[in-house]
Amino acid sequence: MGLDDRKKVVLQAIVDDYVATCEPVGSKSLIDRHDFTVSSATLRNDMAELEQMGYLEKPHTSAGRIPSDKGYREYVNSLMKVDHLSDEEGREIRSKLGESFDEIATLLKAASATLADQTGYISLAVTPKLTSSYLTQLKMLMIEPGKVLVVVVLSAGVVKNRMVRIPDFLTQEQIAQIGNAVEQGLSGMPLSEISLITVATAAKDNQKVELPDALLNQVLYEAYTAIKQADNLDVYMEGKHRMLSLPEFSDTRRAQGLFDTLSHDGLIAGYVDEVTKEDEKKEYMIRIGQEITLEGLDGCSFITTTYTVGGKVAGNIGVIGPKRMEYSKVISQINFVRMMLDEKLKQ
Amino acid sequence: MGLDDRKKVVLQAIVDDYVATCEPVGSKSLIDRHDFTVSSATLRNDMAELEQMGYLEKPHTSAGRIPSDKGYREYVNSLMKVDHLSDEEGREIRSKLGESFDEIATLLKAASATLADQTGYISLAVTPKLTSSYLTQLKMLMIEPGKVLVVVVLSAGVVKNRMVRIPDFLTQEQIAQIGNAVEQGLSGMPLSEISLITVATAAKDNQKVELPDALLNQVLYEAYTAIKQADNLDVYMEGKHRMLSLPEFSDTRRAQGLFDTLSHDGLIAGYVDEVTKEDEKKEYMIRIGQEITLEGLDGCSFITTTYTVGGKVAGNIGVIGPKRMEYSKVISQINFVRMMLDEKLKQ
DNA sequence: TTTAGCACTCAGAGAGTTAGAGTGCTAAAC
DNA sequence: GTTTAGCACTCTAACTCTCTGAGTGCTAAA
What is the reported pTM? Predict the structure, then answer.
């Protein structure tokens, strides 16, 4: 059932050619572009068999062949060789991510931009998954009477803030006290365990100021929603409009379908998460064409990998491009960026 | 030189028809769709004159006419009637912006999303222009030794924060003290007047803790850059990909050119600012086709207006669509959203 | 198993035709 | 002086027809 050696070479050559030209590959042009020791007739036989086995497709009877999803899958799994990044590419990425970033959001934005520039496809970076992280700080800052900025700092280095409204006779001191009490009670607690009840007990156990229960609860509720809101994953996506120059998206309806889906950050983050779980332990995850369960992305391929914060699995970075993608190049680029992120996030 | 009454009606009818169909308008179909009391031959004469005067264009000899930039300009300036929003539209917008927003950024995002949904074009909202606003608060929060979150609050209600790095032996108390000193010295000062020197004198005049000058200056420098960074305008843009379904952007290269330019927030914010200055005192600003000096936007029209915070001129909201835009509808929608923003930002 | 040879297929490019919506112009009517 | 009917003219878009060439599959010989 497996592919014999020559068929493997043929399939590989076809994928390579199609990636380069976006045109169906015929037996003759295959001979021209590669050093085959057999004739075109032999290739034709092989190609017919490869088609029968589902690795190739024909747009129409008298055209050349293009790889099917299964063909790309085989190529990705066992045919392509992931080569090292060229020195120059490495240098370029290094220079773009070289400076020091004080906030994880800024770093991820830069990583995403770099990846998009480098690959020419759509890049994305997702903030660390917070279920695995815990609260380290909670500060409440009075901005004006009745308005408080809640700053939430999480173990993965994520800082989020949210403006909330509170009764306007509360003083900066009272508010700060409550914040401190909650922080003391909850710091180190996994986000998943934080609930309105744990917030309340934390506050009551550690608080020094006396406040009527109803009033206190109101403030605590706001603190709680601020913490919960910090749980949202942010997605930084770059390079979308570059897809418009690819022949596969010259039909604007396809492009629109793609963009439509991509504009829902939540969908994308959720899908990345799903894929990460499915392919646990893999160095990188690849989904090709119909394998992608998101609407509008069935003409694309999706490569993601996971970066770590302080050694723990955290968020994802990835690239979305046409199925006809330069897989090995993209993989080595993603890997390199991942490496740099890991390094910068080690502390 | 002016247009006689019938020519005005003809031009208006042609713009209306072309907006509705995106197809060149001929004399016969004009008669069919409108109640003219004259014959098509007369209209033909009028149309020929309108063309000569520059209000109309022909895609080719035997086609109907389409409005030129000048034609749209005339339409917008004196032909169209800006009608009131339908009750239903008003209700819809009101319901989308009805809830209360604690942060100006959130409110602007919602306004932008509403405008995009409602018009079907590209919407944008720009944060308040900060040159006219002043610092109200500056807080420095130690996140971990060596890392401080600087929170800058401006008079227009804008809250920004930035993580900065400082020597890691400084304590939370010292940092907070410095923050307080700067805040005391600068609060109420217009952003434009804040410089490294004013920051330094503010700190030295109000500070209680004693610190070596070099050390203090390092922290002050970070505070200063955080304040200056708060000066960046943010642009919230929505609905870009909707343009792909318009016939004028079925050519992906046009769409790509547009998207390319739109991805540079700075460019857009700068242009909006420029237009606002040019058309000072106007209720809304309109730029049509070639009037827009941004690359890639010459097939578009751009409508902006200004919202106010606390009664003072502040930021902008706007819509970008094809030249063939439903001007009067969009204008009334923008106006309505502007009104709602003003109301919500009155306090 | 490989290859040469050959008949067959089909998309895409180009040429020719037609239909129809549009124009401008002229001369008569109002 | 406008307005209008009438007419010849123009040009695109759609359709058909043909042709080319790259590609195929099959057969029979090497």
Answer: 0.91
